[in-house]
Specification:
Elements: E1 4-12, E2 15-23, E3 25-26, E4 29-32, E5 35-37, H1 52-107, H2 122-125, H3 131-143, H4 153-156, H5 168-189, E6 195-196, H6 199-215, H7 225-234, E7 245-248, H8 251-255, H9 260-276, H10 284-290, E8 300-307, E9 313-319, H11 342-386, E10 397-406, E11 420-426, E12 430-432, E13 443-452, E14 455-456, E15 462-464, E16 471-479, E17 484-493, E18 507-513, E19 517-519, E20 530-539, E21 542-543, E22 549-551, E23 558-566, E24 570-579, E25 593-599, E26 603-605, E27 617-625, E28 628-630, E29 634-636, E30 643-650, E31 653-660, E32 665-673, E33 679-681, E34 692-705, E35 708-715, E36 719-721, E37 728-736
Helix pairs in contact: 1-11, 3-9, 5-9, 6-7, 9-10
């Protein structure tokens, strides 16, 4: 007997070796698992005859075993299908949880905080802190870098055409925003929280708003106390004092930009000034917003916020002890809906995504196991067919060739240069390539496709050698790619407008490997005319904090918005009050002038702020800036030095004219002056004019319509009252003697 030698490649830790495989050949008959088969039943070339009885018995035994295997495979497959169905349901539930969490992140309101200095509590207020303590708290609060408004992108996308006429949703939005901001302050201060949307406080606030708008009451006049106390009386509240209103003007003009985000920022900046810059008001606003001190009248229980038609913001707070008649004041407010912390929402989203990924992986394993069961059944069935007694000689060996290619079907080679390997074994002998998958630099093994006679036979890396079939296994590799992430840094001003670096860039994009750390702290660009303020970091359009450090995320959009404050020199306008002779006079509250400051290039308008001065009537203005002179009550804050505006006030005047019956002047005009509302009488002062006899008098006032001024007659008396608007012109008519 001579060994017929074949060779197969065997992988060892030293590489691939060629090893001899032998199959015993006896007179042309191949040994096949203890069963013999030849080309026919007649011995040829001294072949050993085939025992058909033995072959049939062995085939029957093999078929029975195959049937048992198929039954076990079916049972396992049914159980696996049930698990797959259950896991599909779980994965769908996980996906819904991820969607819900992502929506919560996308729709979340921005959390606004205002941080109090250490020790600034309601308990501390009850100890009546001195001016030094207040000054310390003010300096710490106003200079705390955390006390800056955080842009609300959702609110910034909502435009507002008229601040005084918001929609019901927008009105509720500012109630919620202000309530949460004040309650953040009160939580730190250890004070009771406020409620919003109560029927009583809403009605009270609406009456105050109507009074302000009716009186056109501007901020320089202080609180419209008469309106507030009248509304208090109407609503069953204590009307012995102004305990209720905190309001400010000019904030919307500076920050509003016709969006809900601008309104929120205006409220934030107003509250910030009341909290940390309220010394001129005796800290009254601060104490009210913090919930009161030893004075129980400041313990607010209900609150409402509104904007009047002069764009002034009012925060109405109802101290508990001022509610005298609960039948007129319904204190049924509710606490504002707390703003969920963005970190909590992001963590919920991350947890949901992680659970979805884990369950998807488990589902994939179940599906793969199901495929293995299917392939096993196919193999068993094929084996059963192979066991049919054919009484034909079978080849004794089979080959399996393993090919390597990429996801596009292109041939690739192992690290030692092989595009394929071929294994040879005895017919029916098992082979298993699972532990022989070669490593290929730059690629990652993905899956296998097993073909028998060019027909797909599954995806397993195990099988049996078949002498009468071509077996090929194609191993697919995915090109290994490091996932990349990108972070884009944007630059804008405090109003959200895009600005550019000194070299003309509106943004920069950094790219790095997923998970790699990035740090922008040392790369903040200088921008002429601006100073860097703070950063807002967004992941998938959801606020993710304010840090300038983070990690690249391969499946997320990362944007960092760097906010810069404009470096604008403050312009100054000084308003002076004097009479028509140039003498300084004072307003009713003792002021001889006011000074306004603002960013250079921005507009100012004093038209609606002209004060009332008892006994005087505003006449005109003279505006001086450098060599320029005009008479306007509006202008632009200048960088070229202060602008002085002199407002001239005159005494009410009765101008007296003397003419004959033909309208000719017969004597020089005279005048008398007095205070507004004061009576005058010229009956005993009518002069005698030589050659003329006095006849009658006519009183006229000037009425102006646009550029046209008309004299309107309204009386024939020689007496009257000094007007607070137009001068009175008194015409005395004489008849010439014959």
């Amino acid at each position: 007997m001579e060994a017929n030698k074949r060779f197969k490649l065997v992988k060892t830790r030293h590489g691939w070796l060629r090893a001899a495989a032998t199959a015993a050949v006896v007179g042309g008959v191949f040994a096949m698992g203890g069963i013999s088969a030849s080309a026919d039943t007649t011995p040829a070339n001294n072949a050993t005859p085939i025992d058909n009885t033995q072959l049939v018995q062995q085939t029957s035994t093999n078929n029975n075993q195959v049937n048992d295997n198929n039954n076990e495979t079916n049972s396992a497959q049914n159980n696996n299908n049930a698990q797959i169905n259950a896991m599909n349901t779980q994965v769908a539930s996980d996906q819904k949880a991820v969607n819900d969490a992502q929506n919560a992140v996308n729709n979340a309101d921005v959390q606004q905080n205002m941080y109090l200095p250490s020790g600034m509590t309601q308990q501390a207020l009850q100890n009546n802190p001195d001016s030094n303590q207040w000054s310390t708290w003010d300096n710490q609060g106003i200079n705390d870098s955390r006390n800056n408004y955080v842009t609300d992108k959702k609110a910034a996308a909502e435009t507002v055409t008229d601040y005084a006429h918001l929609t019901s949703d927008q009105t509720e939005q500012i109630q919620q925003y202000t309530g949460n901001l004040i309650n953040d302050i009160r939580t730190q201060a250890g004070a009771p929280l406020v409620k919003i949307d109560g029927d009583g406080v809403t009605q009270f606030a609406n009456q105050i708003r109507a009074g302000y708008e009716n009186d056109q009451w501007y901020g320089t006049k202080g609180h419209d106390v008469n309106v507030i106390l009248s509304a208090a009386s109407n609503n069953g509240l204590d009307n012995s004092g102004q305990y209720y209103e905190n309001y400010g003007s000019g904030f919307l003009a500076k920050y509003g930009n016709q969006t809900m985000d601008g309104i929120q920022k205006s409220i934030y900046e107003m509250v910030k000034q009341m909290m940390f810059n309220d010394a001129p008001e005796g800290q009254g606003h601060t104490i009210s917003l913090m919930g009161g001190n030893a004075d129980a009248t400041c313990a607010t229980v209900e609150m409402s916020t509104f904007i009047d038609n002069m764009n002034q913001i009012h925060i109405i707070a109802i101290p508990s002890v001022t509610i005298l008649d609960s039948t007129k004041f319904n204190a049924n407010g509710k606490y504002p809906t707390p703003v969920v912390d963005m970190a909590t929402l992001n963590q919920t989203l991350t947890n949901a995504q992680s659970k979805l990924a884990n369950d998807q992986s488990a589902l994939k394993d179940l599906v793969a196991n199901n495929q293995i069961n299917e392939y096993s059944q196919t193999i068993n069935t094929s084996q059963q067919k192979a066991n049919v007694v054919t009484l034909q000689a079978q080849p004794s060996t089979g080959n399996v060739t393993f090919h390597f290619h990429d996801a596009n079907g292109n041939e690739i080679k192992t690290n030692d240069g092989h595009a394929s390997f071929t294994w040879t074994g005895d017919n029916g002998q098992q082979w298993d390539y699972s532990n022989w998958i070669p490593e290929i630099n730059g690629y990652t093994y993905s899956h296998a496709d097993q073909y028998v006679n060019n027909a797909l036979n599954g995806h397993a890396l195990v099988g049996s050698y078949a002498g009468n079939a071509n077996e090929d296994v194609y191993l697919t590799y995915d090109q290994a790619q490091q996932s990349k992430g990108t972070v884009t840094f944007h630059f804008h001003d405090a109003n959200g407008n895009e600005i550019k670096t000194n070299d003309g860039h509106a943004s920069f994009a950094w790219t790095g490997d997923e998970g790699q750390q990035w740090d922008y702290n040392n790369w903040i660009p200088e921008i002429n005319g601006y100073t860097y303020s703070h950063a807002d970091q967004y992941v998938n359009n959801a606020l993710n904090g304010h840090a300038l450090v983070g990690s690249y995320a391969g499946n997320a959009n990362e944007d960092v918005y760097l906010t810069y404050d404009q470096n604008q020199a403050a312009g100054e306008v000084r308003f002076h009050f004097h009479d028509e002779n140039g003498n300084e006079i004072k307003t009713n509250d003792g002021q001889s002038g006011f000074t306004w400051t603002g960013a250079t290039g921005t507009n100012w308008d004093y038209t609606n702020w002209v004060p009332e001065i008892n006994g005087y009537v505003y006449d005109h203005a003279d505006q001086y800036n450098q060599a320029n002179v005009n008479h306007s009550l509006s202008g632009t804050f200048s960088a070229e030095g202060p602008t002085d505006v002199y407002l001239t006030f005159s005494k009410p005047t009765v101008n007296i004219y003397y003419h004959d019956q033909n309208g000719n002047e017969i004597s020089a005009p005279t005048k008398i002056e007095g205070n507004v509302g004061q009576s005058w009488n010229y009956e005993n002062l009518v002069p005698t004019i030589k050659g003329y006899d006095y006849s009658h008098a006519d009183q006229y006032v000037d009425e102006t319509d646009g550029a046209k001024t008309t004299q309107v007659a309204f009386d024939n008396d020689l007496n009257g009252t000094f007007k607070n608007a137009e001068d009175v012109n008194l015409y005395l008519t004489y008849f010439q003697r014959a």
